[in-house]
Amino acid sequence: MADLRSLYQEVIVDHTKSPRNFGVLEDTSHHAEGYNPLCGDKIALFLRINDEDIIEDIRFIGDGCSISTASASLMTETLKGKSLSEAAILFQDFHHMLTLEGGHEAERLGKLAVLAGVAEFPARVKCATLAWHTFDAAIHNKLAPVSTE
Ligand code: ZN
What we know:
4 strands; alpha+beta; Sufe protein. Chain: A; 18% strand; globular
């Protein structure tokens, strides 16, 4: 278990130091901004979703703590190429993992499982879910920035 933990930690550090899909996306079909006032994390998310509801491209920019940055990076990596219905299931699984509600499929979560340890720190759960709430706002075309509070 200790080995698994340090492996998870390594992945988080890697995604914090070199976030994937970081930058502004040209030719955006959906866009939203999110803010977590508890920690000060900010994110802007850009998506290109095609007519078949497939997420063709996804990028983000942001300024936040390591958990929020790593989570956004892992989310973009995971969601690229997925359908919106697959994304909705992943969001639910991820949320269940962090709130310890159970019922999620660890296998389906894949690399997102590295953030499971955040569940032990309730104050940080919002850092980890900020990107996902912002994604949810983007696909529902909510224009006001979402806040986790
Ligand atoms: Zn944070």
